[in-house]
Amino acid sequence: MADYPTSFDKDDLLKCARGELFGPGNAQLPEPPMLMMDRITDISGDGGPHGKGHVVAEFDIHPDLWFFECHFPGNPIMPGCLGLDGLWQLTGFNLGWRGWPGRGYALGVGEVKLTGMVRPDRKMLTYYVDFTKAVQTRRLTMGVADGRVEADGETIYQVSDMKVALSET
């Protein structure tokens, strides 16, 4: 494991987006408005229910977030795909946090269940990413994880078998 902290604030996440946290050519988060979290509260390479690593992060919900105005006019809802993207972002972040080189790419997801919505009156999303596999070989660097998103403590999204790879090309 690399010697990175186990929590990150918004400034740290923005450094990652600029390529300053893990170094040029390595895992980066997107910049706002596509950055789907405000802080990472806990991260590990050996925690979680499977002992393969985990991430917990939070995203503050404000009524003026960019997606509420356009999705949908008069009926504002955060697109579910943005919650899924947040989980993918955190999966790739964990691989970079481990010190593994390369840029992150989402490869897929096994199953997605959306059972709730994020409306402007919600206050906070909490992301949970639990790795089931994390491999680094000469030819492959990949994480496989399950995830869930809670809105104000209520589980609203669940995914299984998210896959993110790191590639040096």
Could you explain how this protein is built, in words?
The relative contact order is 0.20. This protein has helices at 10-17, 66-70, 80-97, and strands at residues 39-44, 54-60, 103-108, 111-114, 124-136, 141-151, 154-167. The model has no long low-confidence stretch (mean pLDDT 96). Helix content is 18%, strand content 36%. It is globular. The chain has a single domain (10-167), classed as Hotdog Thioesterase (Thiol Ester Dehydrase, Chain A). The protein is built from three helices and seven strands, in the order αββααβββββ. It is of the alpha+beta class. A hairpin with a 4-residue loop joins strand 5 (124-136) and strand 6 (141-151). Pathway: Lipid metabolism; fatty acid biosynthesis. One of its GO terms (cellular component) is cytoplasm. Belongs to the thioester dehydratase family. FabA subfamily. Homodimer.
